[in-house]
Amino acid sequence: MKRLRAVMGVAVLAAMTLGACGTSDPGEGGVKVVVTTSALGDLVSNVAGADATVEVLMPLGADPHSFSPSSQQVAAMNDADLVVIIGLGLEEGFAAVLEGVVADGGRVLELGPMLDPIPFGLDDHDEDGDHDHSIDPHVWMDPLRMAEAAAIVAAELNELDPGTGWTERGAAYAAELQELHFEIEEELSVIEPAERLLVTNHEALGYFADRYDFEVVGTVVPGGSTLGDPSSEALASLVATMRELGVSVIFAETTQPSALADAVARELEGEVQVVELFTGSLGEPGSGAETLVDMFRTNAGRIAQALGS
């Protein structure tokens, strides 16, 4: 049922793009689009084709939680016909800049709130001990949500420049991501239900876990941002959780040092793997994660290899 609802949602969004009408003039030289992350850059480029220029602000390997734009990048955002972001608090260093872009009449597409966002899965608390039910911004870790995003981006571009091939390219890319979803399901089928427990660097795999029936049981860095600072008590608690549940893999990230994950693995004094995944950024050439589709395939393969029977 989850699969059917997700695929139907993509079809509805794709159909909506057919009726979109133009509301603004993109000006000379085609539509100029600026995006924040490399994953978004690949998605938007697949929809845009040769009919728009797409500038990606964050370089490969950058952590979206801690990156701040340069003055030249701020100027590019203000000059763009469209700025595409994840939102939901992900691009923390962009908050003031984005407010300025909107105040000056710029067009900002915040995809996260439009992709059925979910709360963080772990039981987080704020400084006063109250529960923190903040929304998880890591929506790009689910291929079906990214299929929906392709249709949304196509509709937005169609408003800027009607009659171009946005709709067709968006639908084709969405279909590719849908097929990829079924491929990933098959790849992960080697993992028994009891083994679908994830310990990650920070809480970046909530959407992946929700889509493919995993459970995130612990993180090295507390919360949904890499900017958290784990206490010795929190790390000791993670070690105890892993020991109790028999978890022998920690999934680190290519955008963050793995020193803390390595330290937790040493504390367990056993055969504990630390496996890097691509989360906040696509990979360099030759990494196997050069595109969003490649990233999904590589991550799924590494998870299946680490946890599969």
Question: Which secondary structure elements does this structure contain, and how are they paired or packed?
Answer:
Elements (H helix, E strand, L loop, with lengths): L1 H16 L13 E5 L2 H11 L3 E5 L14 H9 L2 E4 L9 H9 L4 E3 L32 H18 L5 H23 L8 E4 L5 H7 L2 E5 L12 H14 L3 E5 L5 H9 L5 E5 L14 H16 L2
Parallel strand pairs: 1-2, 1-3, 3-4, 5-6, 7-8
Helix pairs in contact: 1-5, 1-6, 2-5, 2-6, 5-6, 6-10
How would you characterize this protein structure?
The protein is α/β, with parallel strands linked by helices and 309 residues long. Helices cover 43% and strands 12% of the residues. The protein contains ten helices and eight strands. It has helices at 2-17, 38-48, 71-79, 95-103, 143-160, 166-188, 206-212, 232-245, 259-267, 292-307, and strands at 31-35, 52-56, 82-85, 108-110, 197-200, 215-219, 249-253, 273-277. Strand 3, helix 4 (95-103) and strand 4 form a beta-alpha-beta unit. Mean pLDDT is 86; it is low at 1-28 and 124-133.
Gap from first CA to last CA: 27 Å
Number of strands: 8
- The percentage helix is 40-55%
List the uncertain runs. Answer: 1-28, 124-133
Q: Provide the residue-averaged pLDDT.
A: 86
List the keywords.
309 residues; alpha/beta; two-stranded parallel ribbon; globular; disordered N terminus
Short description:
With 309 residues, the chain is an alpha/beta fold. The protein contains ten helices and eight strands. It starts with a helix and ends with a helix.
